[in-house]
């Protein structure tokens, strides 16, 4: 409810459960989330991460960071398990350690998706997971007649991820879609 009030599209329970499962499946101890929203996806991720895991979540909107901080506190998550960074992901990501993260979740400005994916490839470890939330865009991506900028960008990024021999990629239809890639090297 808080997410919608802020204008942040929260992940659905199905997408949240998928993120939790992916974090658990890769034994995620370190996760970067680009796009904090109100903290809904962060709570799901922390549930699937190892008990000592740390979530780093980046958002340009200070109001979203504060809402996420409140949600984490309300859920009883120790502050040592979540690092919330108020800033532009494209400014923050270059400072993140290469191959230092188990998982990167992208739920942010689609226009920047190609750059986010480039940074995600650099920071995720071999065998790590990259997840792009809301990747079906209300079923617009599968309709070739839809030519809006966001739709074309998402379609292009999904195709590039699928065609990349260094990634094993699938688009899952839960919620508004989530495209998941496992890095091979």
Keywords:
185 residues; alpha/beta; seven-stranded mixed β-sheet; 24% strand; globular
Describe the structure.
It is a single chain. By secondary structure, the protein is an alpha/beta fold. Helices cover 38% and strands 24% of the residues. It has helices at 2-6, 13-25, 40-48, 62-74, 89-92, 113-123, 149-163; strands at 30-34, 54-59, 82-86, 101-106, 124-133, 167-172, 178-183. It has a 7-stranded mixed sheet with strand order 3-2-1-4-5-7-6, with helices on both faces. Helix 4 links the parallel strand 2 and strand 3. Helix 2 (13-25) runs parallel beside helix 3 (40-48). The termini are far apart.
Which segments are poorly predicted (pLDDT under 50) over 5 or more consecutive residues?
A: none
- Give me the Rg, rounded: 15 Å
Secondary-structure content class: alpha/beta
* Order of strands across the main sheet: 3-2-1-4-5-7-6
The percentage of residues in β strands lies in 15-25%
Average pLDDT metric: 94
Tell me the overall shape.
globular
Question: How many helices?
Answer: 7
Distance between the termini: 40 Å
Compressed to H and E, one letter per element, the order equals: HHEHEHEHEHEHEE
Instruction: Specify the biggest β-sheet.
Output: 7 strands, mixed
Number of strands: 7
Q: Give the % helix.
A: 25-40%
């Amino acid at each position: 409810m808080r997410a919608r009030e802020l204008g942040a599209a929260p992940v659905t329970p199905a997408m949240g459960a998928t993120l939790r499962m992916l974090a658990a499946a890769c034994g995620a101890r370190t996760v970067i989330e680009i796009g904090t929203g109100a903290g809904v996806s962060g709570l799901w991720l922390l549930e699937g991460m190892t008990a000592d895991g740390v979530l780093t979540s980046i958002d340009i909107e200070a109001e979203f960071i504060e809402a996420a901080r409140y949600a984490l506190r309300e859920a009883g998550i120790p502050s040592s398990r979540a690092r919330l960074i108020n800033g532009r992901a494209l400014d923050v990501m270059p400072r993140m350690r290469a191959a230092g993260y188990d998982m990167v979740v992208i739920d942010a400005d689609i226009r920047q998706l190609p750059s986010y994916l480039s940074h995600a490839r650099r920071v995720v470890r071999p065998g790590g997971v990259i997840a792009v939330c809301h990747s079906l865009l209300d079923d617009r991506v599968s309709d070739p007649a839809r030519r809006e900028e966001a739709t074309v960008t998402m379609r292009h990024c999904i195709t590039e991820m699928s065609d990349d021999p260094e990634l094993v990629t699938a688009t899952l239809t839960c919620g508004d879609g989530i495209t998941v890639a496992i890095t091979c090297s």
